[in-house]
Amino acid sequence: MQSGKPARERILDAAHELMLTVGLSRATTKEIAKGAGCSEAALYKHFASKEELFIRVLTERLPRLAPLLSSLTAEPGRGTLEENLTEIAREAALFYEQSFPIAASLYAETQLKRRHDEAMREMGTGPHLPIEGLDAYLRAEQAAGRVRADADTFAAASLLLGACAQRAFAYDAAVLPEAEPFAARLARTLLAALR
């Protein structure tokens, strides 16, 4: 870790690295603080809980889908629909690829999952937000006439993001389809149903 970085950044870096290597359930705040070169008390000055730290790792250290969706929704008609869907699918595929090893242990421990769900509700975040964001983008494109008026935008958003999550879940790293061609194929297939 770079000692010149602010403590919050060092903590996020250490948490990200530790969560990737040992998983969320085994990454302790003590080990994260040690990796960041600070005390646990310093860690808790920046993050209220391990759950908040995990959510911040997801939102600040992994590919960022929400800002992309927000900018596309604000400017429907920018770029081609195929290019935009490909970019969304690529970012989502990379996000799920990187977050799955970290979050997998959530589903093995009921209490950890419950604490995590509570923290997400308190912070106003959760796995439903990308689907809602993509749905909003597709509805904006629908209003602009680039998506069929009768297209089910929520189902399309669910299919695209579900496929990206399934890619991370179903394949081990040795056979994981490359993100770029996977995203392009997914976008072309979805586009056929939206036009």
UniProtKB/TrEMBL annotation:
Residues 28-47 bind DNA. Residues 5-65 form the HTH tetR-type domain. Transmembrane segments: none annotated. One of its GO terms (molecular function) is DNA-binding transcription factor activity. Pfam families: TetR_N (PF00440). InterPro entries: Homeodomain-like_sf, HTH-type_TetR-like_transc_reg, HTH_TetR, Tet_transcr_reg_TetR-rel_C_sf. Keywords: DNA-binding, Transcription, Transcription regulation. This is TetR/AcrR family transcriptional regulator.
